[in-house]
Amino acid sequence: MKQRERLSTTERARNIFVGKARDLKDEHIFEKVTLVAVLAWIGLGSDGLSSSCYGPEESYRALGQYHGMTIFVALAVVVTIAIISSSYSQIIKLFPSGGGGYKVATKLLSPNLGMVSGSALIVDYVLTIAISVASGVDAIFSNFPPAYQSYKLTVTLVVILILLLLNLRGIKESVFSLMPIFIIFLLTHAFAILYPIMFHTREFVNLVPDASTQFKQASHSMGTFAVLLILARAYSMGAGTYTGIEAVSNSMVILKEPRAKTGIHTMRLMAFSLGLTVLGLLAAYSIFHLKHVPGKTMNANLLEAMTEGWNHWVGEAFVIITLLSEAALLFVGAQTGFLDGPRVISNMAQDNWFPRRFSVLSDRLVTQNGLILMAIAASFILLVTGGNVVTLIVLYSINVFATFSLSQAGMVRHWWIVKGKEKGWIPKLMINGLGLILTIGILLTVIFIKFTEGGWLTILITSSLIFFVVRVRNHYERAEKLLGRLDHKMLKLVEGAMHSWEKSSSAYPEINPEAHTACICVNSFNGVGINTFLKIREDFESYKNFIFISVGMVDTGTFKGEEELQNLEENVKSNLKKYEDLARAYGCFADSYYAIGTDVADEVKELSKKVVHKYHRVIFFVGNPIFARPSSLTRMLHNQTQLTLQNRLAHKGFMMVMIPVKLTSD
Length: 666
Fold this sequence. Notes:
By secondary structure, the chain is of the alpha/beta class. The protein is 70% helix and 6% strand. The longest helix is centred in the C-terminal third of the chain and has 79 residues, at 425-503.
């Protein structure tokens, strides 16, 4: 009784914090979990906009005493945003089902390069979460005395936990809850950008002439090449500004149909808002000749300089509201990491680069395992770096340009292959070619500048992840070879009996609810299931009724539309029909039950009730593949579904027997 109460309390708590399970049979289910362009702009574009809270600052500070040339860096950033967003719009058209940098590099270059791109993206999204939340907390603590700075790391970790809970509830719910923050940020920062232009028009108009004058003076004193290096370093230090541009192409599956059209519309909103914000802020820094103040962000300095002649209370209120909106939007910017990071992981899991459990959806239809992994990884990075934004920025932006470069290279190769077959291929090739040159140039510059400052750590972390995923892929390939041999052996063993039965006109054996009944949990029609059936017939001769139950697993690969779910259901029914024919070929009564869901164990538990209600002497069975040489990877990568099933059925008072199926290379 106490156990039931405890479980009931757990379920109630989960429903409060995460929400009730979604119904896959709801005909409006895809409308409830997908986003229109404006909502996608909020959920995915917030990363780019939030980077305006630290990217422009890093560029401006890198210029040092030469901040008069800020406008040159600002214009270069805007051009870069335009080129990268245009090239990614072409990726969206070519890959409307999504996948982003991972899928583009996998399909257009090679699976191994796709793996490198995906690994780089995962690390980048972990850093996106870490730096966005840390910068947000910095913006909040800009309003507090230095004595409170010691609490920043604790607050940062709490914010990550809150964002995790929001995302566990669902994509749409998390975006809706954060929409007011996004709107307040847009309004306050639009004013912060327009105010200097309107009330300091002369300084704004003279930005380019003044920058040209300072460039000539600096070139005369230290040489043109040295000045260009200063500009290049400032440009590269703000490279974090571009992260998030690729987010739409990675998350096409969460966009409303027609996805390509929605994706391109979202991309345009992102590029326009980001370019305008970065240009406006850098111009404002230069107009007010701002200098770095320890413990305060550059935007905080800008707001204080703007409101210096205002009414004290009005000015202070505006500064606080704007900084709070910045902090809040930085938290929203972490959404991109929570939305896209698990998506990349699930795509790689479907291709066996990651443990397959990361492609599984929760009953809220989100990639729960991936979300938890991203939160843990981001928290770990924050603990290691102490939540220091400057340190995090050094680690940041290297990986995203590796992915940018691979994506552009894949697109260039694609347009070259289809030349002459597709109209307008030359301008498309030129756009992606320009994007390739630009992103490779930025990547090399960022690595050169940031490597000794700590960028080597990002490369080390990414290399370690690549080593891990290669080991995972190699293990799955070996396992699939062993399972393939078993499939071939078992299918060959039973094909004679099945062929003879199909040719005969034998009637189905009659049902006997009182007879011994074996209920076998199966997946596809494969060697494990066939071996389990034959082993039961051999060791338990009294069993004449054979019931087969199967669950169509809804994961990120199948949850893309109603057609995919229908195909999944048809595939499950087809496999069960084969098992029924197999049992009848051996003179046994056969029946089957199936369900479609996200949790195999829960669905099997519900199906077991139906079986026991109809057949009175039931024992449940499941095949359990046994590796001849188990390793730590074996235990980690194979999610022990059989043990979970056994435990769930035991709670219902049902007996389940696991039939060992040894996998050998013989």
